[in-house]
Design goal:
Largest sheet: 3 strands, antiparallel
Strand content: 5-15%
CATH class of the largest domain: Mainly Alpha
Number of domains: 2
CATH superfamily of the largest domain: Intergrase catalytic core
Number of helices: 13
Strand order of the largest sheet: 3-4-5
CATH architecture of the largest domain: Orthogonal Bundle
Number of strands: 9
Structural class: mainly alpha
Shape: globular
């Protein structure tokens, strides 16, 4: 088996009979783990997240404090201590759970590759998360967000995110050609979304035609004198010499959402649009399997958190039972 490239600390040499096995350091094993992720066609953002969780400042401090220099020294006890330290530092339960998941994936990889013995990390249960109903925008909040959007482009972005449930990076990657009109209906084609999977999301419902609004936006609002295919463009032309518009970046979209939140006093974050889309779809009677495909989730378990009674539904059901 090919050994990972030597970086950072030297790997430990273990002599067993006539065989000499080099056990990689933590950093070397992480690089091998990321290389395997690239070979498995994981997205760039996923790989960057893995790197930040496995080599970021919190993890590096944990490795120093617990004298962990190689993956085989990661034990269930050490991981539990790390998670407790994260909680005490004020890290959110969701982030601690992500650390737990990434570390277990990494441990499994190291065991399969022979970099470490099985210390039981993979069997360690994740920290229990409280079941919190996903935040959604109310119809009144949607109106306030649209009113605060200063330009037709910004208004279209708000509507597009609410009506498609696309992730922030997916919104910025959509091109004009991805808005498709077909005999079966209009849809947006999401290319290489999370997990490197293509999917489609319908644009129209019985009482709302987003496709018509998008066509008007493309024909009358979006600049025509551009070779850039992105549906949503930056507000200004590129000043590096090309002189053309550039795609709206995820960072630019985050800045817009932050401004809308500050101006309206509404808590605004990208996934809240996605939660709103999913909750409204279920309320309208969309099949859970169809919603799973539209959201781009791998399993139904990811969609199950949206399957809940709204307060009005619960109260109505209780009144009906009592009557």
């Amino acid at each position: 088996m090919a050994q990972p490239a030597v970086r950072g600390r030297r790997s430990r040499t273990i002599v067993s009979g006539q065989q000499v096995q080099r056990r990689p350091t933590w950093e070397q094993a992480v690089e091998a783990f990321l290389a395997e992720g690239r070979r498995s066609n994981l997205s760039v953002s996923t790989l960057e997240n893995y790197r930040s969780y496995l080599l970021g400042p919190r993890t590096r401090q944990f490795l120093i404090d617990h004298e962990v220099t190689e993956p085989g020294q990661l034990t269930p006890s050490a991981l539990k201590d790390f998670e407790r330290e994260l909680f005490e530092a004020g890290v959110s339960a969701g982030t601690v759970a992500t650390f737990h998941r990434v570390f277990k994936n990494f441990a499994g990889f190291c065991i399969r590759e022979g970099y470490a013995a099985d210390t039981g990390v993979r069997e360690l249960k994740a920290p229990k998360l409280s079941q919190v109903e996903p935040e959604t925008f109310s119809p009144a909040e949607e109106k306030r967000l649209l009113a605060a959007a200063k330009t037709p482009r910004d208004q279209m972005l708000v509507e597009f995110m609410l009506r498609t449930g696309l992730r922030l990076s997916e919104v910025c990657s959509v091109t004009v050609d991805d808005i498709v009109e077909s005999p079966q209906g209009s849809y947006v084609r999401v290319r290489q979304g999370k997990g490197r999977k293509d999917r489609i999301v319908p644009l129209d419902t019985a009482d709302y035609r987003l496709s018509a609004k998008l066509q008007r936006f493309i024909g009358k609002v979006r600049p025509r004198d551009t070779a850039e295919p992105a549906l949503f463009l930056a507000s200004r032309r590129d000043r590096s010499g090309r002189g053309d518009f550039t795609p709206l970046s995820p960072r630019g979209l985050q800045i817009l959402l932050r401004r809308l939140g500050e101006e309206t006093g509404i808590r605004v974050h990208p996934h809240k649009f996605r939660h709103t889309f999913a909750t409204r779809a279920l309320t309208a009677g969309v099949d859970v399997m169809a919603l799973q495909k539209a959201l781009g989730h791998t399993t139904l378990a990811m969609v199950s958190r949206y399957v809940h009674y709204q307060k009005d539904d619960l109260l109505a059901a209780w009144r009906s039972r009592r009557d």
